[in-house]
């Protein structure tokens, strides 16, 4: 959504009383109902519903919402029950069903997606194995009791365009909460008593945003992760999204150096447009590096230096090792100093993103111990994590 569209929507909602104190209360009441865990089963559909209207499959939604469906298919929401998750759940559903079902709460939240009932003791008679594989489906956010929910129209209006009984699936209930960061909070923020390391919640994205200038300026999660209301949810895995969020500068202290002199080169990464910590979670690792390369492109032995941006934790999640993430407005600086011993050298500066670095190490460790019945899926997930790295910045500076 463009900024002028956001402003228009806010203005329209203000006229309806949704951005004052009572409006905030109404939004919170709606969200408390909408995200009450575990989600209730949909129950029997209305008698007038066709099989297409009664379906919870994303393909059914895509029949009338092809653009949203096409975007969703490219998103990580559609892959939230990928092989890395399902490979672990194969054994976990038997050994620790309570913890396994807790994973479903965000990765596949519908009651019809859980293989067991809430207490984990019995099989779920409503379970749909074709639905669970599709992860966070459209209905996970938009359907409750076969009633459809969605955002206000682009002009901010909430009233239906026609009598609901004349519209497909009885129309949609429009709620301002769909345009608020609080809508995302349910899965992207642990509760205050949730799992924490070193006094910090493991999942703290909403609170990071809440403390930033973006919250004060009214920039919502949806404005960046759902531009123009597109169902994309791009993040740390998307090179262009990362580039848009950072300002990266590189340069040398002098234009030329003679052999024997000390080179001084800097590489700076600043979090200028990410509305939360960069990165926000424990799985990514971002590496700033500087090294010398010769005229043939070969790296000079021993010349590489690195600076890491990440929240590094142990594989068993027992201890935080380091936290060098960048909150909004903060920067990381790699100051590289090295004596040059020959002519023709260049300084190569780069920023490389490893979106799944923790998972790579975790899956490797899991397979060393034996992956159990989910081994094939975990191997598939491991291969994907090794492919996910990308270079977000690279520059070579002639030195001599």
UniProtKB/TrEMBL annotation:
<dbReference type="InterPro" id="IPR036280">
    <property type="entry name" value="Multihaem_cyt_sf"/>
</dbReference>
<keyword id="KW-0732">Signal</keyword>
<dbReference type="InterPro" id="IPR023155">
    <property type="entry name" value="Cyt_c-552/4"/>
</dbReference>
<feature type="domain" description="Cytochrome c-552/4">
    <location>
        <begin position="60"/>
        <end position="142"/>
    </location>
</feature>
<feature type="signal peptide">
    <location>
        <begin position="1"/>
        <end position="21"/>
    </location>
</feature>
<dbReference type="Pfam" id="PF13435">
    <property type="entry name" value="Cytochrome_C554"/>
</dbReference>
<feature type="region of interest" description="Disordered">
    <location>
        <begin position="149"/>
        <end position="169"/>
    </location>
</feature>
<protein>
    <recommendedName>
        <fullName>Cytochrome c-552/4 domain-containing protein</fullName>
    </recommendedName>
</protein>
């Amino acid at each position: 959504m463009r900024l002028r569209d956001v402003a228009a929507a806010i203005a329209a909602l203000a006229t309806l009383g949704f951005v004052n104190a009572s409006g905030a209360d109404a939004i919170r009441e709606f969200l408390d109902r909408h995200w009450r865990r575990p989600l209730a089963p949909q129950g029997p559909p209305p008698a007038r519903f066709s099989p297409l209207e009664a379906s919870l499959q994303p393909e059914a939604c895509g029949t009338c919402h092809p653009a949203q469906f096409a975007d969703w298919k490219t998103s990580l929401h559609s892959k939230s029950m990928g092989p890395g998750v399902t490979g672990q759940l194969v054994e976990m559903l038997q050994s620790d069903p309570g913890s396994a079902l807790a994973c479903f709460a965000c990765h596949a939240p519908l009651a019809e997606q859980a293989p067991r009932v809430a207490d984990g003791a019995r099989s779920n008679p409503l379970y749909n194995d074709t639905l669970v594989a599709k992860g966070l489906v459209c209905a996970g956010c938009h359907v409750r009791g076969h009633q459809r929910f969605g955002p206000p129209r682009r002009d901010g209006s909430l009233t239906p365009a026609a009598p609901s009984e004349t519209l497909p699936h009885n129309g949609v209930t429009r709620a301002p909460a769909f345009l608020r960061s609080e809508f995302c909070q349910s899965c992207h923020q642990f509760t205050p008593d949730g799992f924490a390391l070193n006094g910090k919640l493991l999942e703290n994205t909403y609170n990071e945003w809440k403390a930033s200038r973006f919250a004060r300026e009214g920039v919502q999660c949806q404005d960046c992760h759902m531009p123009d209301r597109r169902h994309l949810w791009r993040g740390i895995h998307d090179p262009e999204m990362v580039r848009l969020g950072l300002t990266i500068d590189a340069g040398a202290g002098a234009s030329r150096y003679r052999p024997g002199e000390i080179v001084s080169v800097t590489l700076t990464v600043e979090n200028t447009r990410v509305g939360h910590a960069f990165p926000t979670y424990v799985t990514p690792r971002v590496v700033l590096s500087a090294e010398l390369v010769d005229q043939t492109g070969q790296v000079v032995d021993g010349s590489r230096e690195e600076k890491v941006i990440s929240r590094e934790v142990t594989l068993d999640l027992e201890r935080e090792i380091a936290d060098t993430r960048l909150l909004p407005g903060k920067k990381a600086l790699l100051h590289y100093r090295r004596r040059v011993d020959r002519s023709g050298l260049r300084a190569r500066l780069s920023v490389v993103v490893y979106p799944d670095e923790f998972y790579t190490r975790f899956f490797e460790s899991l397979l060393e111990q034996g992956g159990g019945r989910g081994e094939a899926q975990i191997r598939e997930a491991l291969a994907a994590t090794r492919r996910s790295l990308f270079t977000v910045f690279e520059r070579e500076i002639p030195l001599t």
